[in-house]
Design a protein that fits this description.
Structural class: mainly alpha
Strand content: under 5%
Shape: elongated
Number of domains: 2
Helix content: 40-55%
Number of strands: 0
Distance between the termini: 72 Å
Oligomer: single chain
């Protein structure tokens, strides 16, 4: 990419209009850049920075820690915050386990879309729910599908005794 000119601004730039907003966004994006470099093992350092952190910091909705200090760790919340995602993952395994015996990008996309479309949820934040949904899905292991689900109903089973 070469050396960038750090003070260049387009002719329409005004510090009063663009400057202060850019300062906030710049720091959020710099933190995201450092986290990405760390994640790719290309330098940088752990900032405990997710995409959601970057967006919220850029919008001024989340505190920006001092330069080069990581975001505070995410503390596991209350059971009430985890129960619904666990339940969703557990039930999804019973519903889709035959088609998706293991967690996959295709399954995650399907569950994510359904989660985000839910109308009666207080929080539809998939990034916060994802790990609980996956844990609920993987909890059952090889549990059989629910009655009436999967290949044939219980009445169609023929005993080999």
């Amino acid at each position: 990419m070469g050396t960038m000119i750090s003070k260049w601004r387009p002719s329409w730039w005004s510090d009063e209009v663009h400057g202060s907003a850019w300062e906030r966004v710049r720091e959020a994006m710099r933190r995201d850049w450092m986290q990405t470099k760390h994640d790719l093992h290309m330098g940088g350092h752990e900032m405990n920075q997710s995409v959601l952190d970057t967006v919220q910091q850029a919008a001024g909705e989340q505190h920006l820690p001092n330069i080069n200090h990581p975001n505070p760790p995410k503390v596991i919340g209350e059971w009430s915050e985890a129960e619904i995602p666990y339940q969703y993952g557990y039930a999804a395994r019973r519903q889709f386990g035959a088609e998706h015996p293991a967690w996959s990008p295709e399954l995650e996309a399907k569950l994510r879309n359904e989660w985000l479309e839910a109308r009666d949820q207080e929080s539809r934040d998939w990034e916060a729910a994802r790990r609980f949904v996956r844990r609920g899905y993987e909890l059952q292991g090889d549990a059989p599908p629910a009655r009436g689900q999967g290949a044939g109903s219980p009445d169609e089973h023929v005993s080999t005794r």
